[in-house]
Design brief:
With about 425 residues, this protein is an alpha/beta fold. The protein has a domain of about 140 residues: Immunoglobulin-like, CATH 2.60.40.3250. Helices cover about 20% and strands about 30% of the residues. The protein has 9 helices and 16 strands. The protein has a 6-stranded mixed beta sheet, with helices on both faces.
Amino acid sequence: MINKRLISISALLICFFSLVEAQGFSNFFTDQSCRVDLTFAGNHSSTEVFLDKVHRESFWGGPKRLLTEDFVAGDFRFQVIDSASNKLIYRDGFNTLFREWQTTSEATRINRSFENTVLFPFPLATVELRIDKRTGYDKWEQLMSVFINPGDLLIRQRPAPRVPVKVIRMSAEPHLAVDVAIIAEGYTKKEMKLFYREAARLASYLCSHEPFMSYANKFNFYAIAAPSDDPDVSRPEEHRWKNTALGSHYYTFYSPRYLTSPEHYRIRDIASAVPYDAIYILANTDEYGGGGIYNFYALTSARGRTAREVTVHEFGHSFAGLADEYFYEQGDVLDGTYSTSEEPWEPNITTMVRFDTKWLAALPDGTEIPTALPEDEEGLKSTSKLGVYEGAGYKSKGIYRPTPDCRMKTNAADSFCPVCSEAVKQRILMLTQSE
């Protein structure tokens, strides 16, 4: 019964990933990419965005349709408007490391800045780029507007970087596939054979997990062998800072296992060696850790007994905008991420404020809301018993998840829940121009 009712979820998730049919992609864009480097700055209550640089890069790996969906995932969005016609021709959402930092206690004491970028097809004529911040479930505030003239002499012409690339899997033309750029982090030149093996293993982890498995023929994987001077990654708690390709480190926001890199421009520089829709950074370490931010990147340690589970979990964040469904009774560094008075945009959690936009229509008849957890151990491990279970988004109260367990909740779960699976599927179909 749940599978049949998930047809309703597909309809609802159009608000996240719906794609309006193309009306002349080639009338507005080339087959190259326009990369705009931005600086996000402020504190817990203020956000400013500044233009840094504009680049013209060699490849556009995304779909050749005009993305103009009304509702996009992410705490931020960017819009590209054709100046001559004032027509919206591209729109997408994204998250930032800056936004996560804003929820920490440090942001109440100091101001900081973070690198970020947006990427869209390179325009044929002048366009206006707008950067907006989400202020509610379906409300936005404009933060910045800038006009980009493709003939501007100061747009940096960026050829593909000279870094070794190995194609792990090529299933389709880039604009008809999900192109994943896997970048080496903390691998020296002598360790690149190890990196290629572990990058291939990362691809196999993803493609062995539903719904990626069912759409494996729509994925391309590229291993980009960016060399590091030092092996491993930086470990602030041990006062060990390494000279690595991407400058990643544990203890992001003082959270021990949160492994990220603040060097976002550098990451994009290296990723531009291939056409890409998603970036996955593979760290040369066996210590548990990682991170994933929507339309930003995913980063995980290459080895360890939970490497497969963490790899899929973090890609759920960065690729499909899935929220963490776990929580701690004693609180967490990120437990200020969500307000219980607003509906979160992520498809797999709800505060019940706008539950009608989530998985309400897919619930079995007679489902109790909220739903009590099963009393038996197997029931507590269920990733398919659809309901409304309290505890998610780092909070034990006031935020709800779809099933007792899920890949976005624990490493012990054997799969995504139906809601998460549907969100991943819709993102795949959008990027591959599939129905």
